[in-house]
Amino acid sequence: MTTARSAAGGARRHRPARPLAGPLLALTLASALLAGCSSEPALPEVERVAGAEAGQVQTAADGVQEITVETGDDYVFTPATFTVAPGEVRLTLLNSGEQMTHNLLFTEGAGPAEITEQIPVLGPGKSETIEFTVTEPGEYPFECSFHVALGQVGTMTVSSPG
Ligand SMILES: [Cu+2]
After folding, report:
1. If you measure from the C-alpha of residue 32 to the centroid of ligand 1, how many angstroms do you get, rounded to a whole number?
2. Do the bridges between strand 65-71 and strand 87-95 make them parallel or antiparallel, or are there none, so unpaired?
3. What residue ranges define each of the domains in the chain, with the CATH number in brackets?
4. How far apart are CA 127 and CA 129, in angstroms?
5. Which end of the chain is more exposed for a tag (fewer CB within 10 A), N or C?
6. Helical H runs in 8-162?
7. What's the CA gap between 162 and 36, in Å, rounded?
């Protein structure tokens, strides 16, 4: 296997070439390397692309509340917590990573009611949407079952009506 990109975090620090003078460029590279070496087994640097759209529960044109949860080349859901009102929910999981595969399922037996809709596998660069209806207020923990041991969990709260 020949791949230009190593699994190490440092390899992903590449940036578009900038018109820097030679010595300055060398200095920049040196400090980048130093920074990379001093950190612990670093996760690849992650860029979130959804920005303001991720994490905001919004009401779509058809009246369904929508939320986009983003994940990437790490073990984090963004947002990890959000609140919806009782009713229909359209949840999109966006994997903005380049390497890692995730899923999203509501932790069995953990919430006030079962939500069986799930996103079983989501490869890098992909997004998938599920829809479900919630009626019972309370906290519904969800997880990436691949990485739950690494802390990739979140909680959807269903607010009380009225
Ligand atoms: Cu995961």
Report:
1. 28
2. parallel
3. 1-45 (no CATH), 51-158 (2.60.40.420)
4. 7
5. N
6. 22-38
7. 51
**Listed residue (74, 101, 106, 76) closest to 91, CA to CA:** 106
Amino acid at 49: V
SS3 label, residue 12: helix
**What is the Å distance from ligand 1's center to 29 Cα?**
31
- 101 C-alpha to center of ligand 1: Å? 6
- Quote the ligand 1 centre to 18 CA distance (angstroms): 34
Residue 37 CA to ligand 1 centre (angstroms): 26
The fraction of the chain above a pLDDT of 90, given in percent, is 64
Calculate how far, in angstroms, residue 103's C-alpha sits from the geometric centre of ligand 1. Answer: 6
pTM of the predicted protein model: 0.69
- Which residues have a Cβ under 8 Å from the Cβ of 23 and sit 6 or more positions away? none
